[in-house]
Automatic annotation (TrEMBL), chain A:
<feature type="domain" description="Aspartate carbamoyltransferase regulatory subunit N-terminal">
    <location>
        <begin position="2"/>
        <end position="90"/>
    </location>
</feature>
<dbReference type="InterPro" id="IPR036793">
    <property type="entry name" value="Asp_carbatrfase_reg_N_sf"/>
</dbReference>
<feature type="domain" description="Aspartate carbamoyltransferase regulatory subunit C-terminal">
    <location>
        <begin position="97"/>
        <end position="140"/>
    </location>
</feature>
<keyword id="KW-0479">Metal-binding</keyword>
<dbReference type="InterPro" id="IPR036792">
    <property type="entry name" value="Asp_carbatrfase_reg_C_sf"/>
</dbReference>
<dbReference type="InterPro" id="IPR002801">
    <property type="entry name" value="Asp_carbamoylTrfase_reg"/>
</dbReference>
<protein>
    <submittedName>
        <fullName>Aspartate carbamoyltransferase regulatory subunit</fullName>
    </submittedName>
</protein>
<keyword id="KW-0665">Pyrimidine biosynthesis</keyword>
<dbReference type="InterPro" id="IPR020545">
    <property type="entry name" value="Asp_carbamoyltransf_reg_N"/>
</dbReference>
UniProtKB/TrEMBL annotation, chain B:
<dbReference type="Pfam" id="PF00185">
    <property type="entry name" value="OTCace"/>
</dbReference>
<feature type="binding site">
    <location>
        <position position="52"/>
    </location>
    <ligand>
        <name>carbamoyl phosphate</name>
    </ligand>
</feature>
<dbReference type="InterPro" id="IPR002082">
    <property type="entry name" value="Asp_carbamoyltransf"/>
</dbReference>
<keyword id="KW-0808">Transferase</keyword>
<feature type="binding site">
    <location>
        <position position="51"/>
    </location>
    <ligand>
        <name>carbamoyl phosphate</name>
    </ligand>
</feature>
<feature type="domain" description="Aspartate/ornithine carbamoyltransferase carbamoyl-P binding">
    <location>
        <begin position="2"/>
        <end position="141"/>
    </location>
</feature>
<comment type="subunit">
    <text>Heterododecamer (2C3:3R2) of six catalytic PyrB chains organized as two trimers (C3), and six regulatory PyrI chains organized as three dimers (R2).</text>
</comment>
<dbReference type="Pfam" id="PF02729">
    <property type="entry name" value="OTCace_N"/>
</dbReference>
<feature type="binding site">
    <location>
        <position position="80"/>
    </location>
    <ligand>
        <name>L-aspartate</name>
    </ligand>
</feature>
Length: 140, 307
């Protein structure tokens, strides 16, 4: 049994789809943060069979939960203080994403003006479709 | 301060008010000859255009205002690499209102977000062209007396044709609208228009490649040109450019009170023999374009309507 110690203050991202933790690590920019991060892959889960977990020792403010909601809104965010879970946050698909995904339409203004933020809006919540704010191109 | 980036920026009520104002301008032109005295319109055209730019200029001059602007990217600071955001900030210092055409989609949104004067989207790539839509709506309303309860055929390049996209957006807000979408398979209406606009509003439509079959059911036929500038590949353009040609033979299949619209310029898609048919409304449409742009400039500048 692999043993990873608990964290005193920080965040535990639970119920991550197995295999998705590295993607989340990248999107959240955890590699650039100066804190302890533990990634647990393929942990046994009664609900999911297999799941990934990420433990981050550090404040919640530094995490972009919108990004997390976009990647997988079924993830559970556990806030830890004094080694105890003090809050469980549910995620939802964000209405707007800024500089998370990029427009691939070569006719979009963002393809020539590099300084513009890449903004996407949630066009269809059911189908989880995001479209570029500038050109309406669907993100795929 | 308001901008016009998409036809949906105006509610149905606002659109109807604008069309009423345009109709009044048509009937009483002299009454409006000085309502914009002292106001300046900047026409920023980063892509070649003759009629849209001249239509805007004619509209502002007819209201007593003046016009300044650029008519190609080569003669503007864009050639030096200036961003749309910077250009509009500067133009805001020189004019009271701006009409902008740019080859990139979303450019008008960028301009509006940084501008301190009203921005009118005069075409942003293949995306939106709201003033053409207002022109089309005024033409249809003037000729048919209504904007709902009709079957509208859209023919030609329905993929890159921004006029078509904007017109669909605008017409779905009127009851009893039905579309026949006539195009080669490669130039069909994009999925996002079908999903977000037609399906979302429960608008009946059918797609076909055959113009002849569709003629008899149409109240309006909106022809479009296959635009060379929208293709990355010249071979594709040549293969599709003459896919539909409306001629007198096809016109014989149409209802006597059907009207043919076209945003112009026309190339081969409408044979010149159709021009003399009383149902050919595309040159009249260009005239309506001036009236509707006059009404729009007045509305965005919040100019009071003369008594």
């Amino acid at each position: 049994m692999l043993n990873i110690s608990g964290i005193k203050e920080g965040v535990v991202l639970d119920h991550i789809q197995a295999g998705k933790s590295m993607e989340i690590y990248k999107y959240l920019g955890l590699g650039k943060m100066d804190c302890t991060v533990a990634i647990i892959k393929n942990a046994r889960s009664s609900k999911m069979g297999r799941k990934d977990i990420i433990k981050i020792e550090g404040p919640l403010d530094s995490l972009d939960l919108d990004v997390l909601g976009y990647i997988d809104h079924t993830i559970t965010v556990n806030i830890i203080r004094d080694e105890r879970i003090v809050e469980k946050r549910c995620l939802s698909l964000p209405d707007r994403l800024v500089n998370v995904i990029h427009c691939k339409n070569p006719r979009c203004i963002t393809s020539v003006e590099q300084e513009l933020p890449h903004i996407f809006y949630l066009a269809d919540k059911e189908k989880e479709v995001y479209r570029c704010q500038y050109c309406d191109e669907k993100h795929s | 301060m308001r901008h016009l980036l998409s036809p949906l920026d105006l509610s149905v009520e606002e659109t109807d008010q604008l069309l009423s104002l345009a109709s009044d301008i048509e009937k009483n032109r002299s009454k409006y000859a000085h309502v914009c005295d002292g106001k300046k319109l900047a026409t920023l055209f980063f892509e070649p255009s003759t009629r849209t730019r001249l239509s805007f200029e004619s509209a502002m001059l007819s209201l007593g205002g003046s016009v300044l602007g650029v008519s190609s990217a080569d003669s503007s600071s864009a050639a030096k690499g200036e961003s749309v955001s910077d250009t509009i900030r500067v133009i805001s210092c020189y004019a009271d209102i701006c009409a902008m055409r740019h080859p990139k989609e979303g450019s008008a949104y960028v301009a509006a977000s940084k501008s301190s004067i009203p921005v009118i989207n005069a075409g942003d790539g293949g995306h939106q062209h709201p003033t053409q839509t207002l022109t089309d709506l005024l033409t249809i309303k003037s000729l048919k007396g209504r904007l709902g309860d009709m079957t509208v055929g859209l023919c030609g390049d329905l993929k890159f044709g921004r006029t078509v996209h904007s017109l669909i957006h605008a017409l779905v807000r009127y009851p009893g609208i039905r579309f026949v979408l006539i195009s080669p398979p490669e130039l069909k209406v994009p999925d996002y228009i079908k999903e977000n606009v037609l399906d979302a509003n429960h608008i009946p439509y059918r797609e076909t490649t055959n113009l002849d079959d569709a003629m008899e059911e149409l109240d309006i036929l909106y022809m479009t040109r296959v635009q060379r500038e929208r293709f990355f590949n010249e071979e594709d353009y040549i293969r599709m450019k003459d896919c539909y040609i409306l001629d007198q033979e096809k016109m014989k299949l149409a209802k006597p009170d059907m009207f043919v619209l076209h945003p112009l310029p026309r190339v081969n898609e409408i044979s010149v023999e159709v021009d003399d048919d009383p149902r050919a409304a595309y040159f009249k449409q260009a005239q309506y374009g001036v009236y509707v742009r006059m009404a729009l400039i007045m509305t965005l500048l919040e100019v009071e309507k003369p008594c």
